[in-house]
Write a structure and sequence with these properties.
Blueprint lengths: L1 E8 L3 H8 L5 E2 L11 E8 L8 E3 L3 E5 L4 H6 L1 H6 L3 H6 L5 H6 L2 H7 L5 H7 L3 E5 L3 E4 H5 L8 E7 L3 E9 L6 E10 L2 E7 L6 E4 L11 H14 L10 H22 L1
Parallel strand pairs: 1-3, 2-3
Antiparallel strand pairs: 4-5, 5-8, 6-7, 6-8, 9-10, 10-11, 11-12
Helix pairs in contact: 9-10
């Protein structure tokens, strides 16, 4: 059980940042994982009053506020048109609608959880994070960083022309994924992102040119095999390392087949 001694609804990012420098204080997201922990929180910092609960779309990018819910991502027409439905596919099996109405994009990305569909799908895009003090940096760089006391303000997705697909394997719907697989083709570069391995999601690019001749069956099979060999996996209660490695190959091939079918 978590015990909160004091609640503050921040009036500015500066106030939130200042309060968050105390290690006994915590920034609140949707409170869905935090409430399941144990311990004491001196001051709970709420960002609800800072206007970070909208998705702003321009011709160049999507700016997703840290307090945007996963349900908003699931239903956003512009984001899902750009990602060919991959954004919705990544979040639609996360527990249920009530949960997704509360869970926040910022909390999901900041947590960098090994099981995170949200981190996996956004790593497949040209995505950046905006930190209050750290500025704007690539999501892939942020995902590899250690936790600090900065504030995640928003997630920025560039509208670079591309194609996307997303698949997971779950033992049952609404459970954590056994493996998650995002695929993108951006600017001629193919990128596969594997999450729930069960460590943090990681990206693999077609550096050996398996797909340089197009999405041939032979090239797709070879690239899927390369991804499966490259990505380290581990065992847990949802599946063995060997099973996860097998799923990586299968889901990568299926995502590639989806892109090939569109062409």
């Amino acid at each position: 059980m978590i015990n909160i001694q004091k609640y503050v609804r921040a009036e500015s990012l500066e106030e939130a940042y200042r309060l968050n420098q105390n290690r006994q204080n915590r920034v609140l997201g949707g409170m869905l994982w935090l409430k399941m922990g144990n311990g004491n929180v001196n001051t709970a910092i709420d960002l609800c009053g800072l206007g970070l609960d909208t998705i702003q779309e321009t011709r160049e990018q999507f700016a997703i506020g840290a307090m945007v819910s996963l349900r908003q991502i699931e239903l956003h027409e512009g984001l899902n048109a750009y990602t060919r439905g991959a954004a919705a596919a990544a979040v639609r099996d996360i527990v249920g609608v009530q949960f997704r109405n509360l869970a926040t994009a910022g909390g999901s990305i900041w947590g960098r959880f090994g099981f995170s569909d949200v981190l996996t799908v956004f790593l497949a895009m040209e995505t950046y994070v905006e930190l209050y003090k750290g500025g704007i940096l690539p999501l892939e760089q942020f995902a590899a960083m250690k936790y600090d006391r900065d504030i995640l303000v928003r997630i920025i997705v560039k509208k670079t022309p591309g194609d996307f697909a997303y698949r997971t394997m779950r033992n049952q719907r609404t459970d954590f994924p056994v493996i998650a697989c995002g695929l993108s083709r951006i600017g001629g570069e193919y990128r596969v992102v594997i999450g729930a391995r069960p460590a943090r999601a990681m990206a693999v690019r077609d550096e050996r040119g398996f797909l340089s001749g197009g999405l041939t069956e032979e090239g797709c099979r070879a690239f899927a095999g390369y991804v499966a060999e490259t990505v380290p996996t581990e065992s847990n209660i949802r599946g063995s390392a060997a099973y996860r490695t097998h799923l990586i190959r299968v889901l990568t091939e299926r995502n590639l087949a989806e892109l090939r079918g569109r062409r």
